[in-house]
Amino acid sequence: DNSAKATVECMVILPHLNAIVASGSDAIIRFWSLDSMKLIYALRAWHPNNQTIVKIATDKSNQHIISACALGYIRVWRVVQMGLDNILMNKGLTGDEHTFSPVFSVAGWQAHDEALSCLTVAEHKLAGTLLITASGDSCINLWTIEGSKVGTFGQPKPWNLEDANTWETIHVETPQLELPPTPTLAALLKGKEDPS
Questions:
Q1: 32, 39, 143, 191: which one has the fewest Cβ atoms less than 10 Å from its Cβ?
Q2: 123 pairs with which residues across the strands?
């Protein structure tokens, strides 16, 4: 059993879902119920080369999970609360009938040239949900949740959060990771999904 040998590198509490999300060396994102202390959902993180997930975070509403891997990539996941609630009401994983994914990727990009050392989520009244990232590359970057790079702290040219024209890149210019397929839960847990 490979999951028994995987290390947990990061976790975050989702108070709105009464759950903990954790991931690590096996690049599987797991949702654990705080009530039953049981696994309620799992999915492959789909980072390049199936890299270890080193950071995980959520926004204030728990509608997004952000995972970061050892190669400096970020992936943003949308959490459909109703979908996870349905799984909870069914008392967890119930087999092959799960074809709907309550968690799916909406964006992904390379944020740094090295593994992230910090990942923080912040809210701005006009710019929306923002990601603040840091790495061994000595940079602190500011991103929108869609993947636009607002800028690097300390850069010579200042930016204005309320004016996207001052940002370093707009998300359509940032090379995006390919969106992964949405596997059935049963197939993922049986290890039948191809991680490449």
A1: 191
A2: 129
CA atoms within 13 A on the CB side of 32: 12
Q: Is the pTM of this model over 0.90?
A: no
CA-based torsion, 98, 103, 105, 110: positive or negative: negative
- DSSP 3-state assignment of 19? strand
* 188 contacts: CB under 8 Å, gap ≥ 6: 42, 43, 44
The SS3 assignment for 186 reads helix
> Residue 139 corresponds to which amino acid?
C
**Size of the chain in residues:** 196
Are the CB atoms for 13 and 59 separated by under 8 Å? no
pLDDT tens track for 66-100? 999 989 999 999 887 665 665 555 544 444 444 45
Half-sphere exposure of 64 (CA within 13 A, CB side): 22
